[in-house]
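Possible regression after last week's pipeline update?

I re-ran a chain I had predicted before the update to compare outputs. Posting the input and the new output here so someone can diff against the archived version. Not blocking, just want to make sure nothing changed silently.
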Amino acid sequence: MEKYEIAVADKKIKDRFLEVVSERDYNREINFAIQAIRGNDLLQKCDEQSIRNAIVNVALTGATLNPALQQAYLIPRKGRCCLDFSYRGLCKIAVDSDSVYDIDAVPVFEGDEFYYEMGLNPVLVHKPLMFTDSEHKKLLAVYAVATLHHGIKKFVVLDKEKIERAKKSSQTSKVWDAHYDEMAKKTAVKLLYKLLPQTEKMSQAVSVINEHEGLAVKDEKKAKEIMERFGLKREEIEDLIDCPDADAMVKKSQCETCQKREINGQKCPAL
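New output (post-update):
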């Protein structure tokens, strides 16, 4: 049995699952988790405790790892397994936890009739241009709207500039490039979450997202410090970001590449 399979089968995970879901749901999600990890070499190498935590968070948020539903995913990040959600997953969590009656995110393309007002009497009008290929239309904005149980609607709108700002601050640029519209909708739903009645599952989902994004921010901060300190390029320091003693590692690397310089009586730049 592989290490990740032992981690997934941990009795503590089952106990946490059964506090909120049935044993049938537990078995189903465990199978989805094993399938996801088995198909990804980087996930197989992740810290075992992070795998356990990610799977427990599936139960605590009420999302599913079912790939057909595209709600939540296990992703590797710097040796850790992180749970991430799609905009569909965030919408499901909000509805299932009884925070809202309905919630969705919608892209606005060039040619659509779109108008909104904020203030005391918010208004949002969107009439999509029909019979066009959305894959070749220019995205102008995205909005997320939720209907609360008493009928009041809440919405947020992100224009292209704000969407691009979110992309630039993200550590998943490849995902953005492949699924730009979906990531834009997820960004809008995350922003709308702040305006909605909070539930335990929603708070847990936000905590999971913040932990994942906080890890990315921390990595970039450390990367910037290392680049400035040693005059290295971003692609040269991937192995240093998680190193507890980056100074020693850089020193060793530089000394191995500057032996000729030392032989000629020049001081090693790492010393």
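Follow-up from reviewer: compared with the archived run. The chain has twelve helices and seven strands. Marking as no regression found.
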